[in-house]
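Subject: for your reference before the review

Hello V.,

The reviewers asked for a structural picture of the protein, and I figured it would be easier to keep everything in one thread rather than splitting it across files. Below is the amino acid sequence we used in the manuscript, unchanged from the supplementary table.
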Amino acid sequence: MVDTARARRLAKRIVSIVATQIQHEVKDPRLDMVTITAATVTPDLREATVYYTVYGDDDVVAAAGAGLASATGVLRSAVGAQTGIKFTPTLEFRLDAVPANAHRIDELLAAARDADARVAQQAAGARYAGDADPYKAPRTPEEIEADEIDADEIDADEIDADESDLSESDGLDHPATPGRASDPAPVPGERVP
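And here is what came back from the structure prediction:
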């Protein structure tokens, strides 16, 4: 069974050892601006990938990569001596892309904030193409009076219609009253009220 907790502990230890060795033991000027950021170790503890960042332009980054490649043997020996594990993992150095990606995301967020500010500025001085709300307009006194007259006529018509409906059958099936011919036949064993 693979012990991932052990691999994580070893990865942390490798970061510490490699960073200390680069800072104090390895005398390569190409590694002056190198920062060890993280490490991962395979579950069998045989291979370790060490991530680093470099402060500088592309030439400095390339020189730092070459410096780490030349110091790999010394760094691996230090890891083996200080960890005390049976098999010292091989070290592979990779440039960490997280800071570059974070910088790119910050740039995109800043551009989005600027675009939102421009839209908000345009919206602040904007006016509707037509009325503010074309579906809602103040009613004139004539319209109010006409609506009141129409409402009175509709109410009178509805009252007359309701009275005539009471006198006529509406054709709907209403609950049957006892003794009507339209009652369904009783179910055997059921009590009839």
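For the response letter, the relevant points are probably these. The chain has a mean pLDDT of 82. The helical segments are 4-25, 58-70, 72-83, 98-124, 141-167.

Happy to draft the paragraph if you're swamped.

O.
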